[in-house]
Design goal:
This is Ig-like domain-containing protein. InterPro entries: Ig-like_dom, Ig-like_dom_sf, Ig-like_fold, Ig_V-set, TCR_beta_variable. Keywords: Immunity, Signal. This protein is mainly β. The chain is 0% helix and 49% strand. It has a 6-stranded mixed sheet, with no helix packed on it. A 4-stranded antiparallel sheet has the order 2-4-9-8, with no helix packed on it. Strand 6 and strand 7 form a beta hairpin. It binds 2-acetamido-2-deoxy-beta-D-glucopyranose (NAG). The site of 2-acetamido-2-deoxy-beta-D-glucopyranose has 4 residues, from strand 4. The site of 2-acetamido-2-deoxy-beta-D-glucopyranose (NAG) has 4 residues, from strand 4.
Length: 118
């Protein structure tokens, strides 16, 4: 059986922005669906970006971002990854990254970051 380890860690790009993570780390099986949440209180930050850092790699690769309700996902990640959330309105933000069918190659550290919409 293949076990997948995903360590989910969050970082706020803006000083003073507190970002909350839904899980710190967890183990899932291949084929499982995973949804990780990222939330914060900056009501005017309407973009949430997701990054992946694979084991042994220092690069943080951009998976994509959610702008208001619209996901924009990089080609390499389109097949397996989804995003949901609504960053409009003047309330606290809460968005998620979804991995539809876990594979070994998804073992990574995942980061989310928030910023204003340009
Ligand atoms: C974000 O949304 C999810 C799903 O609706 C919910 O389970 C979670 O508690 C929410 N997080 C916060 C901090 O509101």
């Amino acid at each position: 059986m293949n076990w997948i380890f995903i360590f989910f860690w969050l970082a706020g790009l803006s000083l003073g922005l507190e970002v909350h993570q839904s899980h710190s780390d967890f183990i899932k099986k291949a084929g499982d669906e995973v949804q990780i949440f990222c939330s914060h209180e900056r009501t005017d930050y309407r973009v949430i970006l997701w990054y992946q850092q694979s084991p042994g790699d220092t690069a943080m690769k951009l998976i994509g971002y959610l702008h208001y309700q619209n996901p924009s996902i990089e080609d390499a990640y389109k097949k397996a990854f989804g995003m949901s959330g609504d960053l409009g309105g003047n309330t606290a933000k809460n968005a998620s990254l979804i991995i539809q069918t876990l594979e070994q190659s998804h073992t990574a550290v995942y980061y989310c970051a928030a910023r204003e919409a340009q």
